[in-house]
Amino acid sequence: MKKQTTGIHHITAFARNAQENIDFYAGILGIRLVKKTVNFDAPEVYHFYFGNENGNPGTIMTFFPWETGRKGRIGGGQVGVTTFVVPTGAMDFWEARLQHFGVQITRNTRFGEQFLQFTDHDGLQLEIVAREDGPNSKWSFGGIPVDKAIKGFGGAVLYSTHPKATSELLENVMGLEVIGQEGDWMRFKGSADLGNVIDINIAPMERGSGGYGTVHHIAWRSTDFEDHKSWREQIAQAGYQPTPIVDRQYFNAIYFREQGEILFEIATDPPGFTRDETFEELGKELKLPEQYEPHRAQIEKLLPPIQVRELEGN
Question: Is pTM, for the whole model, over 0.85?
Answer without folding.
Answer: yes
